[in-house]
Amino acid sequence: MSSPVSTILETSAPAPLSLDQAIDEFFSPVATAISDAVFWAVPLPGGNEFPLILAWLLVAGVFFTVYLGFQQIRPASIRHSSHVMRGHFSRHTDPGDVTSFQALATELSGTVGLGNIAGVAIAISTGGPGASFWIAVAGLVGMSVKMSEATLGVKFRVINEDGTISGGPMYYLRDGLASIGKPKLGRVLATIFAICTAFGVIGAGNMFQSNQAAYQLAMFVGGKDSWIGTHMWVVGLVFAVLVGIVIVGGASKIGAATSKIVPFMGILYTIMCLAVIGANITEVGAAFTSIWSGAFTGQGITGGVLGVLIVGVQRAAFSNAAGVGTAGIAHSAVKTRRPAQEGFVAMWEPFIDSVVICTMTAITIIITGVYKAPDADGVQMTARALRTVAPWFSSLLTLAVLLFAFSTMLSYSFYGKKAVGFLFGNSATAEHIYNAIFLILLVVGAATNMTSILGLADAMLFLMAVPNVLGMYFLARVVAREIKGHRERLDAGVIPQVPKEAQAGMMVANEATPEQLKTADQEYALRAAAMDARSDKLNLGHTAPDTERDYLEHLPEDHELFDTMDREGKPLKD
Fold first, then answer.
1. Which residues contact 389 (CB under 8 A, 6 or more apart)?
2. Which residue of 235, 283, 316, 373 pairs with 135 in a disulfide if CB–CB is 3.0 to 4.6 A?
């Protein structure tokens, strides 16, 4: 029999926290502190606040769009990008681990996902239908930023001794800025970016994805009080096992997986949205009218056009990640020797993400009117819109969310591993340790509530953009020379398509034989020299010889090629 004192202690003592609650109690103050620092905002008229980090990204998009001559909307650039994606301009003997299409799929797998489903819904419920207009605009200007990131990622990538590729902002900040006489600044920015990336992908591409996938699955099977709802960490554990199986294979396995998952989930989600739009086809015109009027009259909850713009830009930035630098990592692993080619592929990512898929989500939500309901939020709002056509669409949406989350985890694990590899001198041990931590935090993320994870994810992702965009401004001339030079050479017929039997491929990177690889460098140098000579003969004003001539410039003095030509690719005189 217990004493009165022990009875009082037992009744007054608080109940022990569950695992979910304990994890959230630990992460909430950390997430709040980081978010407040990153999203420091300037007060504006009308009660709005403008986070400076959004201005940082938006200005970068406008700058590179103008500086590169609006490349993303030129018909010739669009045609060329389609040929590059199909492998018509890359040889199977080129250095790299994945095809251009696989790199595109990898980067899209990290951007197309919950931001397109939950993020757009949140933006519309907060800023009204007009927010979707600014999401699309931010996506259009973001295309030039992605083009620049991918171009720099390939130009300054490093080919390791084992043949694998290491690249991304860490390398173009360090080596690119060194090439223009700013080595100290380059090293500092590269280190800051790598540190931000190692932590940032854990927030946005790990914990947030795991959390939202687990939450959606719990809602599907019975709600928060269901077994999964009270044991969401189990969902995280399943994800950790599946992700671990794939990432062991490195970039090639991740590229192979995402190149299959991304098209499937994109088509699945598009079909569902089109079904809703088709069932409400007479309302589409009114939906576009509300988007247009809302974008410039500010009829949303935030009040004023500036408030709607801020909501739209923030959601677009989180969704397409233009300026964050991940495109530079994904495309640096591509089989190619021409940096600009990947720029023309990468530019499609914000368009597919923020213009096409986000707009589809927006139209679906607006024509069904679900954004007006006070109790709908995030994924559940989109699910409610889809159920207006077919109740079983909820099952397909749950599948889509799980696939979106899984593919994002794969791509972000690759980004984080490359960042850690840079910090620790490409140490395989360091990368393995990071992978283990990444997998453990998938479980942690599933068990932590949405508020904490969303704040942490937003903050860490945007923080990566600070050193990346700053470095890109310094390297803007390098980007312009590559892009415009490539475009000019292509238009002049200097750069031909690769013969079909020698192309790198689209879905699968064709492997070259050891004999072909042995002579590949010499053959490339000869072709590069011939292209340079023809460019000089045609007096091309924006010729970008750096990548092709640099190959000759970095060969050892006793290389056999210099028996017949100099480092400029010109024949030696007798």
1. 275, 276, 279
2. 316
CA atoms within 13 A on the CB side of 10: 6
pLDDT digits (tens, 9 = 90+) for 345-400: 888 888 888 888 888 888 888 888 777 776 666 667 787 888 888 888 878 888 88
Give yes or no for a contact between 244 and 443, defined as CB atoms under 8 angstroms apart: no
CA-based torsion, 35, 41, 43, 46: positive or negative: negative
Q: Outline where 464-505 has alpha helix (H).
A: 465-474, 476-491
Sign of the CA dihedral running 385, 388, 390, 392: positive
Model confidence, pTM: 0.81
Q: Rounded to whole angstroms, what are the CA distances from 93 to 289, 502, 546?
A: 51, 8, 20
Q: In angstroms, what CA-CA distances link 570 with 486, 531, 563?
A: 20, 11, 11
What is the C-alpha to C-alpha distance for residues 358 and 350, in angstroms, rounded to an integer? 10
CB 245 within 8 A of CB 444: no
Tokens 């620049």, residue located: 148
pLDDT of residue 103: 82
CA pair distance 36, 52, nearest whole angstrom: 12
**Is residue 331 classed exposed, middle or buried when 0-12, 13-18 and 19+ CB atoms within 10 A define those classes?**
buried
Q: Which residue type, as a one-letter code, is found at position 542?
A: H
Other C-beta atoms closer than 10 Å to the C-beta of 187 total 15
Measured CA to CA, the distance from residue 401 to residue 388 in angstroms comes to 19
57-83 pLDDT, tens digit each: 888 999 999 999 898 888 888 888 888
| d(C-alpha 68, C-alpha 81), whole Å | 16
CA separation for the pair 134, 292 (Å, rounded): 10
pLDDT digits (tens, 9 = 90+) for 140-161: 888 999 999 999 998 888 877 7
Task: List the beta bridge partners of residue 565.
Answer: 571
20-34, 130-144, 417-431: which range is least confident on average?
20-34
The single residue listed with the structure tokens 């030039």 is: 144
- CA dihedral (312, 318, 321, 324) positive or negative: positive
Give the relative orientation of helices 465-474 and 183-202 as an angle to the nearest 10 degrees: 150
DSSP state of 304: S
The single-letter code of the amino acid at 37 is A
**Alpha-carbon torsion, ordered 510, 487, 176, 433, to 10 deg:** -30
Q: Is 341:84 a contact under the CB 8 Å cutoff?
A: yes
CA distance 239 to 226: 19
Cβ-based neighbours of 162, under 8 Å, separated by 6 or more:
none
Grouping H, G, I as helix, E, B as strand and the rest as coil, residue 43 is strand
DSSP string, 374-399: TT--THHHHHHHHHTT-TTHHHHHHH
Burial class of residue 73 in the structure, from the number of CB atoms within 10 Å of its CB (0-12 exposed, 13-18 middle, 19+ buried): middle
Number of C-beta neighbours around residue 286 at 10 A: 12
